[in-house]
Each structure stands twice: as C-alpha cells, then as structure tokens.
Amino acid sequence: MQRTILHVDMDAFYASVEQRDNPEFRGKPVIVGAAPRLGRGRGVVSAASYEARKYGIHSAQPISRAYRLCPFAIFLPVRGRRYVQVSRNIMDIFQAFTPQVQAVSLDEAFLDMTGCERLFGPAERVGREIKRRIRDQEGLTASVGIGTNKLVAKIASDLEKPDGFVVVRPDDVQEFLSALPVKKLWGIGKKTEEKLAMLGIKTVGDLASVPKKTLMDIAGKMGQVLWNHARGLDDSPVISDREAKSVSNEITFNKDVDDRSKHLETLLSLSEKVGYRLRKHEWVGKTVVLKVRLEDFSTYVRHTTLPKPIYLSEAIYSEVYTLYDNLDVHQAVRLLGVGMTQLSSARQQQLMLFHEEDERRKRVTEAMDTLKARFGEDVIGRGGTMKREES
Questions:
Q1: Residue 108 annotated as catalytic
Q2: pTM above the 0.85 mark?
Q3: What would the pLDDT profile of 164-174 be if each residue is shown by its tens digit?
Q4: Marked catalytic residue, from 108, 138, 295, 319
Q5: Are 317 and 223 in a shared domain?
Q6: How far apart are CA 294 and CA 106, in angstroms?
Q7: In this structure, is residue 271 part of a structural domain?
C-alpha cells in the first residue's frame, strides 16, 4: 500500500508561544534563550521569532552574538514547562486523526495517515484541518508537508515556512528533490556537504547521478543511505509512542555537557545497557533510536531501521554513533538516550545473528553478560570510546 505521511512543524515554536502569551511582543523581534549579561554569556538561542531572523539570528547561535546583531530585541528565558503544556495540546490534535503519531520534538511530529482516507478524506484535507485547529485552538501557525515517506514529508514542510503547506505527489518526488541543495537530505552534515562539494555535487539531482559504489567510497556505510535518499526512497516507519515493545536507557546529566568525547562515552555505556537487556530477555531489535536533549530543552529523536535485527551492544553503538554524528550537535547536552524498537524473539528469528568473524565478539559479550547477571549491570563495561568502523 502506498504510504501517506504528514510532517507537521510548528513555526518558531517557543518564540511564537511567547508572542501569543504576551500580545505586546507581537510584531517584535523575540529571542528565547538565556538572557545575556552585558551582551555576554554561555547561553544559546533556543528560538527566534521571524522578526528576529531578519537580523541574521537563528537557533543554536550564541546568545552574545544575537545580542550584538539585535540589541533591542526582547530576550526571554526558556519556559520549558509552558512549551511542554502547549505541545501536549497540539499532539492531542494529531491523535484525533491517527494513532500513528511520532513526536520528534516538542514542536514537530510525523503522522502516518495510510488507510485513514476513508475516515477523514484525502491527506490534503487532513493537513489543512490540522493547521486550522492549531490556529483556532492554540493561536499558533504550523507548516505541513505531505509525501509518501518521512524524508519527503519533512523536506516539504520546511520549504514554505512560516504557515507553509506543500504536497509532493508520488510521481513528482524526483522532480521535487532535484534542484534542492544536498544539505536538505538526512545524513548530510557539514563535513559530508563539504566533501561532496569538492566533487562538484551540490544538488540532490547531482547526487542522484552518482553511482552507488562511488557514494559508498565517499561516505562509507552512509553511501547506501545517501543513494536512496537522493531518489526519495525512505522506508523508515512512523514509530508511535504507544508501540508496546521497546527497550531504552537514558541519562540526564547533573550539569550540561559540551564535551563530544563524554557524549560518546555515555552513548557507549547506554548501548551496553540496552544490549544487555535485549539479550537478557532474548529479544532482538531492528530499529535503533537516539535521543538528545540540549541545554535549551529542545529534544531530538533520530532512528535507523536495519535490514536484519541485532542485539550485540557493539552493533547498537555503531548505529548510535552514526546517528549522533549526523545530528551535528553544537550545544551542551542535558540528556542522552539510546533505545531499540521493533523487537521480536531471538528464538523465533530464522536467521544467523552472527557471522563467523563476529564469534569472538559474541563470546566476549556472553562472558560480560554472565558477570553482569551475577554482580550487577555496572560491574563491567568496555574501556574507552569505541570508534566507528568505516567500510
């Protein structure tokens, strides 16, 4: 069945909530983030109203720079609880149309409307009704993208902000993507973009013309993903919060951490814990999930679905490493989480979980699990931060 995916993204969410709650702020540059002390400070911009963006201000920018660009702007602290409250109201609107809602952060979500047309009509009608309800009930605007998968829907929602509405029909996907810069695709951070530019690859159309083998030579394992995404191919599922089977571990730091090596060390430890729980219950999983909450309370959830299920901690960490690397984190981190979904019984899997070269890792893992079962999960772990294997 052809999928129908909506991506709904609130417009300058935190700043828009502040303008709604304080009518005197409307039409003025509003910047949400730690207020600067005499134009200095460690804080970063969590959100900037569209009036503030005209001065070159954007999220994740140091608050001190924002102050220099627009000293007469209205600087406000982050009101996390207020944004969570409004976000819940908006998510309730989504749930009225489909139970398959994946909240990516407080201000954006994917909705899988596949098969719901009989109840609510075409996806375009649903998208416009969602925008209307958000405007009428919450006094806010949202941008909506509609496509046959999450990748296309996400890109579409970003094209005509604010208050945008873009529908990409199945036959128009390649034409829609072709002229866009490659950075619009998932998996292309600044480093990969620069590497591709050196080869004359600047648009998605340019990328689509490159052979798969060449892309894998350039980007390793990500080459296959880039090859698919350049063609608008993405089979990642909309993972509802209500899905039953999942295993996850997360940690909230006592103090925000901006050290990449500490992030990776923590992600390794979390991957170990998730892998141990999977093996303990004799489960395997196909979808690896990374959760990152930054110092401004913005939360990002990224995931990757694998062709075959896994439960080795090293395999989990390898995927988590890639997700983290592609997220391109430039702020201090409050919380990190690792999870696995799409679980099934390891005993029921009619496949080889290990290749011959993985037997050594399997034996090491089983020995570690035996110690953990006897003395507790924290009795042993892998030393240092494992490096991602490049192919």
A1: yes
A2: no
A3: 999 999 999 99
A4: 108
A5: no
A6: 13
A7: yes
